[in-house]
Amino acid sequence: MLDKDRTCLGFDAAFPMLHGKNGEDGTLQGLLELADIPLIGCGCLASALCMDKDRAHKLASLAGVRVPRGQVFRRGASAKELAEAARQLAQKGGEVLIGGRRCPMVGRMCMDQLLADVTDLPAVKAGDTVTILGRDGMETIPAEEAAEKCETITNELLARLGPRLPLIPVEA
């Protein structure tokens, strides 16, 4: 590593803080391993494996780790195949509230992002509020219901909510 005067600076280890392709997919980790530079964090193999969420979930499951159910949508799948997969996922589980109506989750939840089937909501638009737990209009998704679908208990489900997810207290 060089400073602004191109003087070589020493360091004890690399601590990659990158996201996505070339950052957390094993590319940088492999380069650091080849250069024999100590790495803080996952190595090349673990990083590469975890970029393929489907394979990572299968491997974790084989090791006895509980993983969420999911469906992988691959390029080239027909509209009929995608619709059938979405229907099966809707039967299995999660829902969100949009405009006071329940909408099934589809695809796989990744980090803080998910997809919802809004086919029956023609007026839905970008920026609409999506309620994961709680009340929207006359509909409610209680934490107990969501926990049951996730095959866990309410306290564990609530503890998993990320800090970026806004919690809006409402008086009863």
Describe this structure in words.
The strands form two sheets. Strands 3-2-1-4 form a four-stranded antiparallel β-sheet, covered by helices on one side. The chain has a two-stranded antiparallel ribbon with strand order 5-6. The radius of gyration is 21 Å and the shape is elongated. It is 31% helix and 15% strand. The protein is built from six helices and six strands. By secondary structure, it is of the alpha+beta class. α1 packs antiparallel against α2 and α5 (143-149) packs across α6. β2 and β3 form a beta hairpin. It has a domain at 94-160: Lyase, Ornithine Decarboxylase, Chain A, domain 1 (Beta Barrel).
Task: Give a short synopsis of this structure.
The protein is of the alpha+beta class and 172 residues long. The chain has 6 helices and 6 strands; from the N terminus they run ααααββββββαα.
Q: Which SSEs are present, and which pair or pack?
A:
Layout: H1 27-34, H2 44-51, H3 53-62, H4 79-92, E1 95-98, E2 101-110, E3 113-116, E4 130-131, E5 134-136, E6 139-141, H5 143-149, H6 154-160
Antiparallel strand pairs: 1-2, 1-4, 2-3, 5-6
Helix pairs in contact: 1-2, 5-6
